[in-house]
């Protein structure tokens, strides 16, 4: 791991510049990678492995196909491939898509926990996903037990109808029907509860992705106070409140 990091660092120093030093190198840069918003981390993987923060200028020629990846907290990862033609200056512009709570909820709608993973809450997303799968597994198990109980009840009823005319066996067969009916009711209730639990986990998963979406982007709160005079020589104070989400 140290060897890889060292090679990336050396390659970045030799082949590209990023951040503060980019202005001095703009005239000589063969390729400049910019992102919107500015400041995303850019990774190039090809003949060399490079990394830098946009705006990132490559002052030496690259050739061949490179995988380019741009990442920034609060934005979806951007990945593409690009073929560098040696000696031809390029300006690559990457526009990142902002993560939103709506996109997180839509992902959780398709698969519980996916929205949390999308929101960089990976441990929570993994826990919710496992919990939902466990709840669904319990539904399958409870439904299987319920179907077995229904089959046993139908068998008991058929047996009673076929052999219930005999006084010697009537009471015993009737008791078997009652026991089978009780098992059907019990398994039906168990199945109903497992369905409710699974549905509750799913709804929580959606609400969590929507309501507890991380505050990636700063919110702003502005207060303005003003004083004006009217025709009656009375002073009027005004208060303004501005919120940015």
Outline of this structure?
The chain has 245 residues and is an alpha+beta fold. It is built from 6 helices and 10 strands; from the N terminus they run αβαβββββββααααββ.
Write structural notes for this entry.
The chain is of the alpha+beta class. It has 2 domains: 2-95, Immunoglobulin-like, CATH 2.60.40; 102-211. It contains 6 helices and 10 strands; from the N terminus they run αβαβββββββααααββ. It has helices at residues 2-15, 22-25, 101-110, 114-118, 122-163, 167-211, and strands at 16-18, 31-36, 41-45, 49-53, 56-58, 64-71, 78-84, 90-95, 220-229, 235-244. The chain has a 4-stranded mixed sheet with strand order 1-5-2-8. Strands 4-3-6-7 form a 4-stranded antiparallel sheet. It has a two-stranded antiparallel sheet with strand order 9-10. α3 packs antiparallel against α6 and α5 runs antiparallel to α6. The longest helix has 45 residues, at 167-211. It is rod-shaped. The model is unreliable at 1-15, 17-27 and 220-225 (pLDDT under 50).
**How many structural domains does the protein architecture include?**
2
End-to-end separation in angstroms reads 41 Å
**Which class of secondary structure composition applies to the elements?**
alpha+beta
Q: Which outline best applies?
A: rod-shaped
- Mean pLDDT, nearest integer? 80
Number of helices: 6
Q: Which blocks of ≥5 consecutive residues have pLDDT under 50? A: 1-15, 17-27, 220-225
Q: Please state the CA-atom Rg, rounded to the nearest Å.
A: 33 Å
Percent of residues in helices comes to 40-55%
Tell me the strand percentage band.
25-35%
């Amino acid at each position: 791991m140290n060897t890889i990091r060292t090679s990336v660092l050396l390659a970045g120093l030799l082949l590209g510049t990023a951040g503060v030093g980019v202005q001095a190198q703009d005239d000589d840069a063969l390729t400049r990678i910019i992102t919107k918003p500015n400041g995303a981390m850019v990774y190039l993987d090809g003949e060399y492995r490079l990394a830098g923060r946009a705006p990132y200028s490559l002052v030496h020629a690259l050739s061949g196909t490179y995988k380019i990846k741009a990442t920034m907290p609060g934005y979806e990862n951007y990945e593409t491939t690009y073929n560098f033609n040696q000696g031809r200056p390029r300006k690559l512009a990457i526009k990142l898509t902002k993560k939103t709570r709506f996109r997180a909820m839509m992902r959780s709608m398709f698969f519980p926990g996916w929205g949390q993973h999308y929101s960089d809450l990976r441990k929570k997303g993994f826990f919710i996903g496992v919990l939902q799968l466990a709840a669904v597994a319990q539904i399958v198990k409870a439904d299987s037990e319920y179907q077995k109980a229904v089959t046993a009840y139908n068998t008991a009823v058929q047996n009673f109808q076929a052999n219930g005319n005999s006084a010697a066996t009537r009471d015993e067969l009737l008791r078997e029907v009652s026991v089978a009916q009780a098992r059907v009711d019990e398994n039906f209730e168990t199945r109903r509860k497992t369905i409710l639990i699974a549905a509750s986990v799913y709804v929580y998963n959606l609400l969590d992705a929507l309501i507890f979406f991380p505050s990636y982007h700063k919110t702003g709160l502005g207060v303005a106070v003003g004083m004006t005079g009217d025709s009656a020589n009375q002073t009027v104070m005004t208060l303004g409140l501005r919120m940015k989400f």
